């Protein structure tokens, strides 16, 4: 049986923003959304670069080769962004999410980095197929806040992984089986960041144009505070149909001509500005400051030193850095540092202000990488201590889990067979204990890493 996709897509500015930093690409074999960020620092250009590389990777691939192609395209986009920032420091701060999949007629090759999302709607149940790489998602996973509370959390815009030129920010990749009747949704946080999964699920029944219209209306009803990009696709029996299409910023931006790196509103279109969305973009990119700080420091000091302004400007900059904090490794333990990770002219701009007994090696692999890369930043000591509290909990969980791996289970004692009635069946008073030689029931195990019908998948913090 040949499976195919029947799809619709939409990308718009929303009701508040002044330009569309979202981009999207659709074809019979690929559906992708990229949500650019960075405010004035060309988030639209970043998403256009991501979509350009993904479009070039599109083709008749199957199985693992789909994941390989997507991974290579995202890595190439990240290198392109890094090169642009090196050439023009004014672009520092740009980045993009990527979420979507390739389709080979049997399964999808799913990719995600950032906080855009992919869903599957099957038999009336909406399943989130991706996990947000955001701070609030870790809080939801740990049960500290609800999904609804995450929508209002003051740090809901903080993203832990994104395409921004860093080689340490890698996408999640997975093969997912699909079947006839599945409905797939890929969207930017202009939809999924405004409403809960339950609200989205309530709008998923009906034909594709009606559902698309309903989802757009839901996002508008919540204020339309962000760009809105939505792709809907039905898995059907039949032959592939449709032509490739590029939407959003990527449809009007040439990534090779950065002189035109913003998409303005059409002439005459007025927008009433609500709570500052550019500030939200700045906060959204806050956790990934390593490249930005390095470039800014180099450029700033290169200008100030020759001009003889190093005294006043140097003091002001140093004062700023001492209001920043990050989690890093101090020997084998986790510690809180005050300042910024990168030295200037071999002069350190950070110092340990709080040691902790938590060992880096006891953390889940993902958080070990974040600590060693000095990627867990905070704007205050209190915020840094909250991150440290979270790391302690995760380390304790891993210590217990790893201890269980090495502790031999006690051998079960033989159990006498249950008394039998003449008919050969156990009597009503017989114990439910298994008879000798019978296969013991397997203990409940953690589900294999495949999509489950839960609104919030578990965090990738396996020990």
Automatic annotation (TrEMBL):
Sequence ranges of Polar residues compositional bias: 441-463
Domain of life from the UniProt record: Bacteria
Limits of the PPM-type phosphatase domain: 6-235
Protein name per the record: Protein phosphatase
Region spans: Disordered: 400-463
Species lineage: Bacteria, Bacillati, Actinomycetota, Actinomycetes, Propionibacteriales
InterPro entries for this protein: PPM-type-like_dom_sf (IPR036457), PPM-type_phosphatase-like_dom (IPR001932)
TM helices/strands, residue ranges: 297-318
Protein source organism: Propionicimonas paludicola
Pfam families: PP2C_2
Keywords carried by this UniProt record: Membrane, Transmembrane, Transmembrane helix
UniProt feature, compositional bias: Pro residues: 409-419
């Amino acid at each position: 049986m040949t499976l195919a996709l029947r799809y619709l897509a939409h990308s718009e500015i929303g009701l508040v923003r002044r330009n569309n930093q979202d981009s999207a690409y659709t074809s019979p074999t690929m559906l992708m959304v990229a949500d650019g960020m960075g405010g004035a620092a060309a988030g639209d250009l970043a998403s256009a670069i991501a979509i350009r590389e993904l479009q070039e990777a599109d083709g008749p691939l199957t199985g693992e080769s789909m994941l390989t192609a997507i991974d290579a395209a995202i890595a190439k986009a990240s290198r392109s962004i890094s090169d642009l920032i090196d050439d023009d420091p004014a672009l520092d701060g740009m980045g993009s999410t990527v979420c979507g999949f390739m389709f080979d007629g049997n399964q999808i090759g799913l990719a995600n980095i950032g906080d855009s999302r992919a869903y599957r709607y099957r038999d009336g149940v909406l399943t989130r197929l991706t996990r947000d790489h955001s701070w609030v998602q870790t809080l939801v996973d740990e049960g500290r806040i609800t999904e609804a509370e995450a929508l209002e959390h003051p740090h809901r815009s903080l993203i832990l992984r994104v395409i921004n030129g860093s080689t340490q920010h890698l996408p999640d990749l997975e093969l997912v089986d699909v079947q006839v009747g599945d409905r797939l949704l890929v969207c930017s946080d202009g939809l999924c960041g405004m409403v809960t999964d339950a609200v989205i699920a309530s709008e998923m029944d009906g034909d594709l144009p009606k559902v698309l219209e309903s989802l757009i209306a839901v996002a508008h009803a919540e204020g339309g505070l962000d760009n809105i990009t939505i792709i809907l696709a039905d898995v059907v029996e039949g032959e592939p149909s449709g032509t490739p299409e590029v939407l959003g910023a990527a449809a009007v931006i040439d990534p090779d001509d950065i002189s035109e790196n913003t998409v303005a509103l059409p002439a005459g279109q007025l927008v009433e500005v609500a709570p500052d969305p550019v500030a939200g973009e700045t906060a959204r990119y806050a956790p990934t400051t390593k490249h930005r700080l390095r470039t800014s420091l180099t450029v700033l000091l290169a200008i100030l030193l020759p001009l003889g302004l190093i005294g006043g400007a140097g003091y002001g900059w140093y004062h700023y850095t001492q209001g920043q904090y990050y989690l890093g490794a101090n020997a084998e333990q986790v510690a809180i540092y005050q300042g910024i990770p990168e030295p200037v002219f071999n002069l350190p701009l950070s110092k340990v202000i709080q040691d902790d007994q938590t060992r880096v090696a006891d953390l889940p692999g993902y958080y070990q990488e974040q600590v060693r890369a000095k990627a867990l930043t905070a704007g205050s000591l209190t915020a840094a201590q909250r991150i440290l509290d979270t790391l302690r909990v995760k380390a304790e969980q891993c210590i217990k889990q790893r201890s269980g791996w090495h502790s031999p289970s006690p051998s079960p004692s033989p159990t006498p067979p249950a008394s039998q009635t003449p008919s050969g069946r156990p009597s009503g008073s017989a114990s439910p204990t298994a008879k000798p030689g019978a296969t013991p029931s397997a203990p409940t195990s953690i589900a294999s890493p495949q999509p489950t019908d839960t609104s919030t998948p578990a965090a990738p913090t396996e020990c």
